[in-house]
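job 3f2a | input accepted
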Amino acid sequence: MEDGSKILDAAGGAIVTSIGHGRERVADAIRAASLNASYIVPPWITPEREALVQELTTHWLPPYLDRIHLTCSGSEGNEAAMKIAVQYHAAKGHPERHVILARSVSYHGTTISTAAVSGHKSRKRGLEGILQDYPRIETPYPLRCPLGPDHPGVTDYYINSLEETIARVGAGNIAALIAEPMNGSSGGAITPPDDYWPRAQAILKQHGILLIIDEVMTGFGRTGFKFGIDRFGIEPDLLVSGKGLAGGYAAITGVFGRGEIAKTIAGGGLDIMFHTFAGLPQACAASVEVLRILREENLVARTREVGTALKQRLVEKFGQHPHVAEIRGEGLLIGIEIVKDRETLEPFDIEDGITNKVVAAAMQEGVFFYPGGTGEVRDIVCIGAPFIIGEKECDLIEASLETALATIRRE
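job 3f2a | predicted structure (411 res):
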């Protein structure tokens, strides 16, 4: 900071940073790529792109996701995946299948289409006139299930929402469902029941609806698994992941898809258009080194271990706090939902600005937490620390959170 004080970034910026800052080998790789060729048009092959494809297909992606399309951001990646899904059905002779199913609590980006498909009303203000209205299913939210918190019928309830929406819209009109495996900051790491995704995916397959999984935030180790799909037993048709791909060292996102989708689109005489700055040599070089560091230092498994321990200590410390409704998440994607009344789950009024107050109070203690929520879902404080944090950093996270939560009691 300007005054010389230091801040522990417990949010990894915007839940981006994985291997930490200042890794010289990543910087060296970026420099070497820049000296080799500053820009190469995306359809051309570069050594850096080849190395990234090799790293991804050998060590990270499941075998069935054998096609890679690069973009610069998560917003672009999700939009590209939506376009690919619609093109796939058009190439099969079903142009009427152009509807994308969305979810009630979600965030997929800032472009016109990804903002529209997102269930994040506070980020749509002033844009309502230009945004398309997408049909929505309810996001699995065990704490706030209408049947009751963590009700035994929670999965049935949300599966019914999926089935009813498909019936209302008409399966023959739907191209794909886009969803996060578990919510990112929009819902503060809302975690679905373990049996939700296997059941949901079976229904989608039955109707020929593609599944786009948005792992822009959860991918490349954030949940303590390579991808959230590994944690929740999902086999998507298209997977989008970006933040962890280069860990903040470069702007790059991957859309990973099934070969059958790419072959069908090509067979129909359609093109998947590239982005001008997609797959820059520098970005690919950075990604290769970040992914290698994750493997060499065993940081994905470490994230699961450290994140589980951190969540447990936070539950033990704050689980009965009168203003803490739930502490949830996987790995180092942890959400803390703050409420006015723990027993009734009544939220604070949006005008109270509780999230920002808690984040500001923690900053005074030297820790930055990421503010989450959608405006309707509030108040959420997120932890998305780099995978390299240790006991000292976890102590500071706990202490600063204690001080920050105490400010609510004084309101």
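job 3f2a | The chain has two domains: 8-19+298-409, 24-296.
job 3f2a | closed
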